[in-house]
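Colleagues,

Please find the record for the two-part complex below.
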Amino acid sequence: MKKITIASMLGVVALSLAVNASAQVKPEDQIRYRQAAYSFTSWNMGKIKANIDGTYDAAQVKAAANAIAAVANSGLGALFGPGTDKAIGSQKTAVKPELFTNGAEVAKLAGNFAKAANELAAAADKGDAAAVKAAFGETGKTCKACHDQFKARN
Amino acid sequence: MKKITIASMLGVVALSLAVNASAQVKPEDQIRYRQAAYSFTSWNMGKIKANIDGTYDAAQVKAAANAIAAVANSGLGALFGPGTDKAIGSQKTAVKPELFTNGAEVAKLAGNFAKAANELAAAADKGDAAAVKAAFGETGKTCKACHDQFKARN
């Protein structure tokens, strides 16, 4: 079952958990929640970028990086369950159908995102602006890598 | 300036950061991002509830609690900037106008949320199911306290 493989790898969530969590959340809510997770991530990425480009505030960067890592480690795979590959009523989705049939690639990209986000959080925790800038760039690349392959609109 | 007082207290974000962040995010995006933050929180609260009511998985609860705490500490006050007190085009909001004129109460409620979320994350980190159940209840109360006063729809 490719779906389960995907779910189990995304965000480093264990197999049983992903299945369990998927079962408890309606498909339209899975889409809504995953969009919320990415939107919240986008806000926090934007804050870090503003700090890199402008005045660097270690506390704000640390909080934002922690938020991104928490999203990456939250088990997002559970939000790509059966029936979430297309719009449900007014709940649209930009996911490409390929995400649900290419588990190995999705798992790789999700693992890259989690790894980069954790490294970003570690750099932010040290207050190391140069390391944050590098890790931020790497994290952004992992976002784009997945969008390029599995998101219909960007 | 009550707005700044609110922003500086919500999520324990420093004054200058909140102003800085507000300035960088368009009002309609502030509404969108704060709704995303709360929606993402709702998903994670739901996961913890499912673990408390069913089979307790410490890893899933820890990840979910970390996510909620990261939201609570992310500086949400910056997303309640000027012009976000009512719908902007198709971007609706359920916020009551009172939120923008009752800084002391908002700050108190936001502080309660952050405190409870941090305690929930600490309990989850220890894998203490009984402590998680108690902290989850307290966290839920802080959500409801703010909704009751400052959210028009529930």
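Chain B has a mean pLDDT of 89.

Comments are welcome before we finalize the supplementary table.
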